[in-house]
Write a structure and sequence with these properties.
GO terms for molecular function: glycosyltransferase activity. This protein is α/β, with parallel strands linked by helices and 345 residues long. It has twelve helices and nine strands. Helix 4 crosses helix 7.
Length: 345
């Protein structure tokens, strides 16, 4: 006669397949061992695995630009952006991540009902990375025609018309849908990627000495602008990543060198697909006279047609399409020159 312990062991062996089957049905399918935000991870999983409408089934589809507004204040320049977007509704989408701890009010118009589920953000913390990833994931899920994803802030303004921006990004790079079942992502991502910075080593160790190892060796660490324009392939790379994210989400110990949002995106894309990125940003920022990590803040007295023309000019072969950082008081003088200067290409 079999002893009781043997019977218990046999029962466990027999029930194990059933337990495994039930666990697969009942437990979430997308989990990471150090997950700080299970709801974020579920969103990211859906964004990279969800089967969207196949583009070949759509009638005369045109690619769209997803504009991702990252803000912790009201969108002061909404009237200028509204003028920028007018007449092009079929070529863009808008997504807004507003810090829920602030009283951000919807400006209405094209911005109506474009707020996504958000969480608090704080400077010198990985929360800004998380916010950008939520915006990318939401835009990926929302519309398969979103092929470029432009991250901007409440201080950003357009320097040219929407038509110019659209043609500039997609110029000569759309392939015929008769030959391809999807848009051929030959167009690059516009993200600043710099390997030389006088404070690069201090920035690398901002989270702690050698904390980035082994996933991010110092020779692979990069710096760049927080604001970028990514193609759909690279948007998925960012949303899908956990390997580097688990390093960059570690709190900083040196706040003077802590700018994770300026490091994570250029480092990740440099390691994943450097050849698919231009290495340049299309958002102009003036670092002359910067203070406490903030760039120059333009005032109403500085706004002029000549300033707009100067801000468009780049040292590279690319033109700047957007610029920051403008004080809220700049809205009136910018609106005064919108039709005759900014949107007259």
């Amino acid at each position: 006669m079999l002893s009781s312990p043997i019977l218990v062991s046999l029962a466990l062996l027999i029930s194990l397949p059933l337990v495994l089957f039930l666990s697969q049905q009942l437990l979430p399918q997308f989990t990471f061992p150090f997950s700080p935000d299970a709801d974020d991870l579920a969103l990211f999983h859906r964004a990279t695995t969800h089967t969207t409408t196949h583009l070949s089934t759509l009638t005369n589809p045109k690619p769209k630009i997803a504009f991702l507004f990252l803000t912790n204040t009201n969108l002061t320049f909404a009237p200028l952006w509204e003028k920028f977007f007018t007449g092009n509704n079929h070529l863009f989408n808008i997504y807004i991540h507003a810090d829920p701890t602030t009283s951000v009010v919807s400006p209405g118009g094209v911005f109506h009902n474009r707020f996504i589920s958000s969480k608090p953000t704080q400077r010198a913390s990985p929360s800004l990375i998380s916010a950008a990833r939520r915006l990318l994931a939401s835009a990926l899920l929302d519309d398969p025609l979103n092929q470029y994803f432009a991250l901007v802030s409440q201080h950003c303004v357009p320097l040219l018309s929407f038509r110019f921006v659209y043609n500039y990004l997609f110029k000569n790079q759309l392939m015929s849908l008769a030959s391809f079942s999807d848009f051929n992502l030959l167009y690059p991502s516009f993200i600043e990627i710099l390997s030389e910075d006088p404070n690069l080593y201090e920035r690398y160790n901002a989270h702690g000495e050698n904390v980035m190892l082994p996933e991010v060796p110092f020779e692979d660490f990069r710096v760049g602008s927080q604001f970028f324009i990514l193609n759909r392939k690279h948007a998925k790379v960012v949303v899908r990543d956990y390997k580097l994210w688990k390093k960059f989400r570690i709190p900083c110990v040196n706040l003077d060198s802590c700018y994770p949002e300026e490091h994570y995106f250029p480092t990740l894309l440099s390691m994943e697909d450097l050849n698919g990125c231009t290495g340049f940003t299309l958002t102009r920022v003036n670092w002359t006279g910067c203070w406490d990590g903030h760039p120059h803040l333009y005032t109403p007295e500085e706004v002029s047609p000549e300033l707009i023309r100067q801000l468009r000019v780049s040292n590279s072969s690319y033109s700047y399409l957007f610029a920051r950082k403008f004080s809220p008081e700049c809205l009136a003088p910018l609106m005064d020159i919108a039709d005759d200067v900014i949107f007259r290409d």
